[in-house]
């Protein structure tokens, strides 16, 4: 690996670590506890990947809603939804929104995941407010 490549990876790791630390502080100060653990998030995203479902996600520290129709990479505690190389840690997830499908509801009930059901979509929150 070249010096330039090593420096890029080091800076990326530092940014990720800083974002995780900031998110943990936010969680402690502004939420009333987590609704989902990494294992449940992983299973939800695994289902999304298997069913080629489109989804939207919002992280705790951003007002931006990201739309995705593909999962580039799924890890035990994070997800990559674009070609930026910037993984989103599950602990950063405020909510995801998916199209309302009966198979999804069955899976969420099996996983004992709380969700809000609307006519056209299902909202899954990561934290109690």
Description:
39% of the residues lie in helices and 23% in strands. It is globular. The protein has three helices and eight strands. The strands form two sheets. The chain has a five-stranded antiparallel sheet with strand order 2-1-6-8-7, with no helix packed on it. Strands 3-4-5 form a three-stranded antiparallel sheet. The protein has helices spanning 3-30, 38-50, 102-110; strands at 55-59, 65-68, 73-74, 78-80, 88-89, 93-99, 116-117, 121-125. With 129 residues, the chain is α+β, with helices and mostly antiparallel strands. It has one domain (3-125): SH3 type barrels (Roll), CATH 2.30.30.100.
Structure class:
alpha+beta
The number of helical elements comes to: 3
List low-pLDDT spans. Answer: none
Cα distance, first to last residue? 44 Å
User: Beta-strand level of the residues, as a percent range?
Assistant: 15-25%
The domain count comes to 1
* Major β-sheet profile: 5 strands, antiparallel
């Amino acid at each position: 690996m070249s010096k330039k490549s090593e420096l890029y990876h080091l800076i990326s790791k530092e940014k990720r670590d800083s974002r995780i630390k900031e998110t943990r502080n936010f969680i402690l100060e502004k939420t009333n506890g987590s609704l989902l653990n990494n294992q449940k998030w992983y299973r939800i995203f695994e289902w999304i990947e298997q069913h080629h479902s489109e989804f939207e996600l919002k992280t705790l520290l951003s007002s931006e809603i990201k739309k995705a129709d593909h999962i580039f990479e799924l890890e035990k505690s994070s997800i990559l939804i674009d070609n930026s190389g910037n993984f989103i840690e599950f602990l950063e997830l405020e909510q995801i929104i998916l199209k309302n499908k009966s198979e999804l509801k069955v899976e969420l009930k099996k996983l004992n995941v709380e969700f809000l059901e609307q006519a056209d979509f299902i909202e899954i929150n990561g934290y109690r407010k």
